[in-house]
Amino acid sequence: MKRKKWLTMVGITSVLMGSMLAGCGGGDEKTAGEDTSGGKDEKIEVTLAGWGGNPSEQKLLQQTLDEFEAKHPDIKVKLEVISEQYMDVIKTRLIGGEGPDVFYLDAFEAPALIETGVLEPLDKYVTDDFDINDFEKPLLDAFKGKDGKIYGFPKDYSTLALFYNKKMFQEAGVDVPKTWDELREAAKKLTKGTKVYGLGVAPELARLYYIAESKGGKVVTDNKASFADPKVVEALQPIVDMHLKDKSAAQPSEAGAGWGGEMFGQGKAAMVIEGNWAIPFLQDTFPNLEYGTAEIPTINGKKATMAYTVAYVMNKDSKKKKAAWELISYLTGKEGMKTWTSKGYALPTRKSVAAELGYDKDPLRGPLVAGASYATVWQNGTNLPIIMNNFNNQFVSAFLGERPLDEALKEAQETANKEIESK
Q1: Could you please report the per-residue DSSP string of 79-130?
Q2: Strand pairing class (44-50; 75-81)
Q3: Whole-prediction pTM
Q4: Kindly report the CA angle at 283 between 280 and 287, in degrees rounded to 5?
């Protein structure tokens, strides 16, 4: 019954990002070097499913898998790229008994999938040399179940950081803001009518969650929407005011851009709050742009940011669990993760790898890495997809001045909770 109900849920695949390596473990299935048909010298084939990336990322993944196979000559990895409706396809295959042995799982989707019981707990496979404590804690905790067991190891992540145009800052005579109040004042000085906005804003819950909870309110309580809380409204009101009153902030579409990185690269925003994915984009598309990054300005004296992360998980029905764990432990171990993140397209979830690659001290990526230890992971319970959709629909109307924020969020909360109750 639970699985049938789960199958009807709409899968939402994160497009915010894109990692991997080491270890060994237990399991009672056939060992590597034996296949399930009994042929002793045949390779075991492990299926690995994920969504596609850009050609450079795909090349890095294939390089990492080639290195794994060289070190594990008795295991063959079959990579399956699911380019559309990823979670829907995975769920359908799992329920039909045809799921891959190992696959990507976004933290956003993790609570609901863990609850169905289709994932293999990984704790029993872990050995001391795998070094769990090396992972950034918020990222690892995102894949723990209510039972405290670990159901996935994060392969990579991105936090959010402040991207700022150095030339515009110099011309306006403003310093990089350290607090949100300073950011708001800087945005006013950097704005030039509708040609350049001080801040480019993505008016969606995935980007605003950490701000929404900065005054002590909760977006989600007991797996239901609670974002109409006056404390949440108070925390989000300045974003709306920057757009409607200060005229210093706008969403990318208002400036003819598709997203924040493009708006920033085109010089239509002096500041945006974006993730690691913006760095290679800006380098490739706007190579002459002079910009810097900084940790997101503090709110109420506290550091805050979002984190988006993806794990490798194991199908509980896999018949090749030992080989599957060998793959997961390599991809999320130090060696494989170093290969996968070596070009900077993705950030390593292991602190030691980030340090070895120099990302923690990198002028552009350093602020993103610094945020990992205190970030709010984009995840909260099994009903977040419903909560998110209703929030986004109504917050945009308030951002555009069509209705007061408190009224918009109250309606969105009521609608979300009715949908949750009728599930």
Answers
A1: EEE--SSHHHHHHHHHHTT---SEEEEETTTHHHHHHHT-BPP-GGG--GGG
A2: parallel
A3: 0.90
A4: 170
Q: How far apart are CA 374 and CA 176, in angstroms?
A: 21
N-to-C CA span, the chain = 13
Both 263 and 339 in a single domain? no
| Phi-psi label, residue 173: left if phi above 0, alpha if psi -120 to 50, beta otherwise | left
Structural domain count of the chain? 2
Written as six digits, the tokens of 406 are: 């408190």
CA distance readout (Å), 32 to 24, 73, 362 = 11, 9, 40
Q: What are phi and psi of 305, to 5 degrees?
A: -165, 175
Domain at 217, CATH number:
3.40.190.10
Show contacts of 288-292: CB within 8 Å, 24+ apart: 289/165, 289/265, 290/165, 290/166, 290/167, 291/163, 291/164, 291/165, 291/166, 291/264, 292/163, 292/164, 292/166, 292/176, 292/363, 292/364
Question: What tokens appear for 372 in the block?
Answer: 């990992």
Q: Would you write out the chain's pLDDT as a tens digit for each of its 423 residues?
A: 333 333 333 233 333 433 322 233 333 333 333 344 335 568 999 999 999 888 999 999 999 999 999 999 999 999 999 999 999 999 999 999 999 999 999 999 999 999 999 999 999 999 999 999 999 999 999 999 999 999 999 999 999 999 999 999 999 999 999 999 999 999 999 999 999 999 999 999 999 999 999 999 999 999 999 999 999 999 999 999 999 999 999 999 999 999 999 999 999 999 999 999 999 999 999 999 999 999 999 999 999 999 999 999 999 999 999 999 999 999 999 999 999 999 999 999 999 999 999 999 999 999 999 999 999 999 999 999 999 999 999 999 999 999 999 999 999 999 999 999 998
Pick from 275, 272, 280: which is nearest to 158 by CA? 275
Place of tokens 């405290």: 148
What domain range includes position 141?
A: 2-158+307-377
**Same-domain pairing of 106 and 40:** yes
The span from the CA of 29 to the CA of 159, in Å, is: 38
